[in-house]
Amino acid sequence: MAAVQRLFRAAASGGVAAASRRCMTSLAAEQAAPSAAAAGFPFGAEEKLRRRPAAERNVQWVFLGCPGVGKGTYASRLSRLLGVPHIATGDLVRDELASTGTLAKQLAEIVNQGKLVSDEIIFNLLSKRLKKGEDQGESGFILDGFPRTVKQAEILDGVTDIDMVVNLKLREDVLVEKCLGRRICGQCGKNFNLACIDVKGENGLPAIYMAPLLPPNNCMSKLTTRADDTEEVVRNRLKIYNDMSQPVEDFYRSQGKLLEFDLPGGIPESWPKLLHILNLEDQEELKLAAA
Ligand code: ADP
């Protein structure tokens, strides 16, 4: 953790790649030193312990996509199917916002304008979440909303291996409607969407239908809207995504890790197709059969 913070300080002053390499070794040494030393590993072997081959650990995936595309919906479904944690940095930020800490006021101002939170804050929240998961024996992850800048992607690359990056895509007019339709139940915390998307295919774009995801009666009177889901802020978030986060797609594309997925419609149509391109249909059948 301290090493991650050192990495940020070093990265902020330039030379991200070199800083990543330097700090990766010290992070590994700091976190794995006691057990590695006890096991008699020579210095430097810790790094190999942390970077375990994909076949020996759970998946380490990233979900990319514009606000409102459904990263949270599909990442959380996959996390349940694969038994790995779904870690959404937006949720970590909102948990912090809901607390009474001094950071909350500072964050509210940034988030409610649709701007990105500083790398330092995001990595702090993420490090705490990863540490908590590690203590509880979690392995693997599906990251949602992180990395959001090339610098975050480079730093992540310096500390762990990402196996695959799923890039969810949807036309922009639909994204805005979906964000404006989002609701959260203040009591059970579940997400719903009141928007009924029904756009005709035109100008070479396919028609798209997405049924609303309506809450049960007992949630209806407790629905809340995210403060950053107003039209002005959503459009600002989309602009920031195009400026800051689209280059992250190129970053992973050049590594051959990017899997593009154009959402064909709502969950009933999109989920089976997503499982198909991820080669996970059998996994779901096994899970359904066992339920
Ligand atoms: P979205 O619906 O825009 O994808 P998220 O729930 O992922 O929203 O994030 C909400 C807000 O939290 C963002 O607008 C931003 O202010 C902050 N945030 C989340 N993840 C990051 C990140 N990786 N870097 C910087 N800011 C972030």
UniProtKB/TrEMBL annotation:
CDD domains: ADK. It is an enzyme of class 2 (transferase). One of its GO terms (molecular function) is ATP binding. Its EC number is 2.7.4.3. It catalyses: AMP + ATP = 2 ADP. PROSITE patterns: ADENYLATE_KINASE. Pfam families: ADK (PF00406). Keywords: Kinase, Nucleotide-binding, Transferase. InterPro entries: Adenyl_kin_sub (IPR006259), Adenylat/UMP-CMP_kin (IPR000850), Adenylat_kinase_CS (IPR033690), P-loop_NTPase (IPR027417). It comes from the Eukaryota. Belongs to the adenylate kinase family. This is adenylate kinase.
